[in-house]
Write a structure and sequence with these properties.
Oligomer: single chain
Number of strands: 28
Number of helices: 17
Radius of gyration: 30 Å
Shape: elongated
Helix content: 25-40%
Bound molecules: adenosine monophosphate
Largest sheet: 6 strands, mixed
Distance between the termini: 27 Å
């Protein structure tokens, strides 16, 4: 069941109004607009960045959002929510293991969804994101002196259907009509105006506070396409801060062995560590001063950039493999990359920049403020959608293959992974059982051959199929993924035109780790799967044709199908029986090739007979009946 949300009245969204661009980040968020062709971040009294942090009281009232909420974390960690982007579109099960890393409480709601517990109140990640979005909306409204109701919001390129949905829902809950969900790397490329050159390959290296994303984009004739994405959902500036904190705490404990920092003290140490790290991006050394009088701590030390780089080298290095994998996945050579773009506050670290230059063999773009790049690009796209500029067309890709379950628990892919969006694809399927009047359609996402290894997105039943022999009824399943990456599925019975349509509101259940694992496993298990799949397919097909042939022979024997003796002779029933017995002998074996050979032999033998019977029964069933009669 999809998450039900009561949306605010959006009647004012019909006023023309402005469209703003929003970077809704894990750590920080920003809102931007285009001022006479130039994208600009809208700053409040405390700067352009709104930390994605919300403080609530026990009654569920919002106490503070952004910079003020971040300060609250120091004194009231249990009421302050951060990193909520990590929870978007997730089930409780997905994020359970993370709960130890968060200072606030996670709870499980009905249908396994995750909630954040503040006092006695439970909040959905969507509601919490909406608080941040409302703050950004308000900031824009204060700046323009008018209501703002339309926005473009960016998401990581790998965000799945559930996560995109959740982001869109959060926008709507904040009173924003989300005109488009745009991939962050695409927005970053727009910000650098890379769309102006007609073609090229762009690598976007995004190292923020808590996540690392690398995306390879291809630009051709002014159209962006995401060739590949990779990354690490738990890698970023926070890890560097943590390493510094560990160093500080170890050294403090040398002097004060009883020192056990509580939640607030940890936050204080984290702030000192982060400030030191930031200063060291521009200075060779910094003085650390950490005072915790209650614990008798007055810690002082000098820290050099070289020291910082030494203790954090392994963290920065962890971005190398995802980059190399993304290049491989994009089926390109590193030399083919024309531009490299830096995104995310952590790319200000000189060590990060030199690693990027080393990996991509070229100097990355760093002219823009890396915190603002994505928001600026979102503003450019917002401006396009507001009708101000018309020359940018955005295309993204679907991160995982989408398909339906077919007999034997197999995945029948309809839209392969990395297909450019928007896209539409249709496959035709047949019924498996005689007189089947309904088919259950199970929609899956993933790369493995068997659906049990993939992730279920939705299920629905197509009813009203005319009762026909197995294989005679045909139904088409169409998948449409819109420009926001949201999937719409429809199924239609070919003869009658009876259709069923659903927008897939997935259960919020797949983590990025799962996506990564599924992608990895699809490579590791590929050869094993192929063998298993071939055998399962062969057996299913063998059984299907055996059952169909036995049934027809029974009907012929009982006189339920009447065929003249001369005609029967030309249909060569003896050859059909021989082939039937030959297939029966091998169908339970483990030899896919032998089964397939006998299936082919039986198919050839029954071809004239099957054709005759199928034609007769299709016309008999459909003759003189209208659609309504057939569907009842
Ligand atoms: P983002 O998620 O892109 O907003 O990036 C936030 C991360 O960038 C945090 O870990 C910050 O500590 C880090 N950051 C911001 N400015 C700098 C800087 N000058 N040097 C190093 N890290 C920085």
């Amino acid at each position: 069941m999809p998450l039900q949300i009561t949306l605010p009245n959006q009647s004012d969204s019909t006023t023309p109004g402005r469209v703003v661009g929003i970077d809704l980040g894990t750590t920080n968020s920003l809102v931007a607009y285009v001022d006479q062709g130039v994208p600009k971040v809208i700053a409040g009294a405390d700067g352009g960045i709104v930390p994605s942090v919300v403080t609530l009281d026990d009654n569920g009232n919002v106490v503070a959002v952004g910079v003020k909420a971040k300060k609250h974390a120091l004194v009231d960690a249990a009421h302050t929510v951060y990193s909520v982007k990590r929870l978007m579109g997730k089930s409780f099960q997905d994020v359970k293991k993370e709960s130890g890393l968060l200072a606030y409480r996670l709870a499980q709601a009905d249908e396994g969804l995750v909630r954040v517990q503040i006092g006695k109140k439970l909040f959905t990640p969507i509601e919490l994101s909406a608080f941040v979005l409302k703050e950004l909306k308000k900031r824009a409204e204060d700046f323009f002196g008018e209501t703002v109701t339309k926005a473009v919001i960016t998401v990581p390129a790998y965000f799945n259907d559930a996560q995109r949905h959740a982001t869109k829902d959060a926008g709507r809950l904040a009173g924003l009509e989300v005109l488009r969900i745009v991939n962050e790397p695409t927005a970053a490329s727009l910000a650098y105006g890379l769309d102006k050159s007609k073609q090229g390959i762009i690598a976007v290296y995004d190292l923020g506070g808590g996540t690392f994303d690398i995306s390879i984009l291809k630009l051709s004739n002014g159209v962006f396409e995401v060739l590949s994405t990779n990354g690490d959902t738990y890698l970023g500036g926070d890890d560097i801060d943590r390493r510094l904190m560990e160093l500080f705490i170890t050294q403090i404990k040398h002097m004060e062995p009883a020192f056990e920092p509580n939640g607030e003290q940890l936050q204080q140490i984290r702030n000192v560590a982060e400030s030191a790290k930031i200063e060291l991006s521009t200075k060779p050394s910094v003085m650390i001063a950490l005072d915790i009088p209650q614990a008798n701590v007055a810690y002082r030390r000098n820290l050099t950039r070289t020291e910082l780089e030494t203790i954090t080298r392994s963290i920065v290095e962890r971005t190398r493999i995802p980059c190399e994998m993304a290049i491989k996945d994009a089926l390109i050579d590193v030399d083919e990359i024309d531009e490299v773009v830096l995104v995310g506050g952590s790319t200000r670290m000189p060590a990060v920049r030199s690693l990027v230059q080393q990996i991509f063999k070229r100097k990355p773009h760093d002219e823009l403020n890396p915190d603002e790049t994505v928001a600026l690009g979102a503003a450019i796209q917002a401006n396009v959608l507001a009708g101000e500029t018309k020359d940018v067309l955005l295309l993204d890709v679907t991160p995982l293959s989408l398909g339906i379950e077919t007999i034997g628990g197999m995945m029948s892919t309809i839209i392969p992974r990395n297909t450019t969006l928007p896209t539409k694809a249709t496959e035709t399927y047949t019924t498996f059982v005689d007189n089947q009047t309904g088919v259950e359609i199970n929609v899956y996402q993933g790369e493995r051959d068997f659906v049990r290894d993939n992730r279920k997105l939705a299920e629905f039943t197509l009813k009203g199929i005319p009762p026909l022999p197995a294989g005679a009824a045909k139904f088409e399943v169409s998948f449409l993924i819109d420009a926001d990456g949201i999937l719409h599925v429809s199924a239609k019975e070919v003869h009658t035109g009876i259709a069923h349509e659903v927008e897939v509101k997935p259960s919020y259940g797949l983590t990025e780790e799962e996506i990564e694992r599924m992608l990895r496993e699809s490579v590791v298990y590929a050869s094993q799967d192929i063998g298993e799949r071939r055998l399962a397919e062969a057996k299913t097909e063998g059984q299907r044709i055996l059952a169909a042939t036995e049934k027809v022979l029974g009907q012929l024997r009982r006189g339920e199908i009447v065929i003249t003796p001369q005609r029967l002779q030309s249909l060569n029933v003896a050859a059909v029986i021989d082939a039937l017995y030959a297939l029966r002998r091998v169908v339970q074996s483990e030899d896919a090739e032998a089964i397939n050979n006998q299936v082919t032999a039986l198919e050839q033998a029954t071809e004239p007979l099957a054709q005759e019977i199928m034609n007769a029964s299709v016309s008999e069933v459909l003759e003189g009946k209208n659609v309504a009669e057939i569907s009842t």
